[in-house]
Amino acid sequence: MQLPHFHMSVCYLRNCKPGTTLISRLLVFALLLGAGLAQASTVAYQKVELFKGETFFTETFEIVDAGSYLATLTDFEFPTPLEETGMSITTTTEMLGNLLAPGSFTFEATPGEYFISFFGFADTTSSTMLGQYGIDVSMTEMPEIPVPAAVWLFGSGLIGLVGIARRKQSNSV
Q1: What is the DSSP string of 97-138?
Q2: Reported pTM
Q3: Pairing mode of beta strands 84-90, 112-121
């Protein structure tokens, strides 16, 4: 953990007193915690499969956050490239996007149930007749997530404690 190293460099630059070590560490922790809460990632669907010959399927998946999504189809070319591949994403009434080769497309989605269909044919001239693909559907633009009020309250309380500790130290000198 690099938190003590960060604290030492801050105290070295500011000539911190030994009594402020715990408070400084808690303040840095609160700031890092607040920054971490503001990041989120939404993966709606992921699949990787190694298959022999041919494969095809239709599966359902749920989208819980409205926004722009990126659907990516990857041919891992293991052990050789696929002869043919494709995928589509639909609702029960609308085609949102499709591919007839590895690549990606974006689509707008609202919370609900979606369908992904895939087909793939391995290289029939190879001795193994194996193929491997990957599918990823993820949100491209993350919604802003507000930092909870408790984190802001905790941080302001720590700042107050630091101020009280410095005032006591200056009075004792």
Answers
A1: EEESSSEEEEEEE-SEEEEEEEEEE--TTSSS-EEEEEEEEE
A2: 0.61
A3: antiparallel
- Tens of pLDDT, residues 125-146: 988 999 999 999 999 876 555 6
Distance in angstroms (rounded) separating the CA atoms of residues 18 and 10: 13
Give the phi and the psi of residue 14 in degrees, each rounded to 5: -105, 0
The class (CATH top level) of 43-139 is: mainly beta
What does the alpha-carbon distance between residue 63 and residue 116 come to, in Å, rounded to a whole number?
A: 12
Domain spans of the chain, in order of start: 3-39+148-172, 43-139
Whose tokens are 């990041």? That residue is 39
E strand or H helix at 172, and its extent? helix 149-172
CB 121 within 8 A of CB 160: no
CA dist., res. 69 & res. 150, Å (int)? 31
